[in-house]
Amino acid sequence: MSGDRAVDGRLGAVLLWTLIWVLNAYVLLTG
User: Fold this and answer.
1) What pLDDT does residue 5 have?
2) From the centroid of its chain, how far is CA 15?
3) What does the pLDDT read at residue 6?
4) Residues 16, 22, 23, 25: is their CA dihedral positive or negative?
5) Cα distance between residue 1 and residue 21, in whole Å
6) Environment class of 25 (CB within 10 Å of its CB; exposed 0-12, middle 13-18, buried 19+)
């Protein structure tokens, strides 16, 4: 399965953006 590495990279990017959005929402709601 040659696509696993690309899928992992995409998943990592999605998780990173999700974390950023969650942190931004947390700061806005608590700040």
Assistant:
1) 81
2) 2
3) 84
4) positive
5) 31
6) exposed
pLDDT number for residue 2: 66
State pLDDT tens for residues 1-24.
Answer: 567 888 888 999 999 999 999 999
Q: How far apart are the first and last CA of the chain?
A: 46
Domain ranges of the chain: 1-31
Q: Which helix (H) or strand (E) covers residue 20, if one does?
A: helix 4-30
The single-letter code of the amino acid at 15 is L
Here the tokens at position 23 are 């942190």
Token couple for 16:
């990173």
